[in-house]
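Protein chain data
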Amino acid sequence: MKTQASIPVIAIDGPSASGKGTVSALVAQALNWHLLDSGALYRLVALAALKRSVSMDDVEQLVLITRTLDVSFCVKSTCVASDFNVDSAGSPAKLETRLLLEGEDATQEIRTEQCGDLASQVAVIPDVRLELLKRQQDFRTLPGLVADGRDMGTVVFPDALLKVFLTASVEERAKRRHSQLMGKGISVTLADLFGEISNRDKRDSQRAVAPLKPAADAVEVNTTDMTIHQVVERIISLYNERCRG
């Protein structure tokens, strides 16, 4: 019987709008592995705080929310437009994760820019991160796990079989997020998104606990000029190389 530590993990980290969510879902689907969207957990904490009118400065209440967070995930396969360049293969199928907060579907609510910004503020609180650490590690079950986040390879799964750090220019990431939000009928400007993503990058990379950075043994993949399929193929190739090694 395999121990939890022996179960393979592919850790995919990167800044906001680098494509890691879409890529992670597609890699998990290709390998038939489990998927962890760690950013969704922080967004759910932020959304719960917002619904309860809890300030981002009220650490005690934020920790209590994190500890008692009533959340569940419903995963199914669907066909959606990608977050970035699509090649001739067309729109990819991916795993759609429906997120339930206290029994209600919060999938769309947590993807707003407001919720994302609040989640970034929540993520700098050490006690919140500690509460979520064990919950994230519990996703490591057979046959394997693809973990998407900002500290998957550095903190949550430092022993991951493969660690990937996705990057892309701020300009390109702003364009991707703009296209994604406009497609959902959410009106935003590129200038505003550029500013928000730049500020989030700065906050995430400069936080005292688990700052956003590649693990020492991570493979960096710049997705600026790549299609989603090329990125997925690159990661699957890296995984196969590690298995053969």
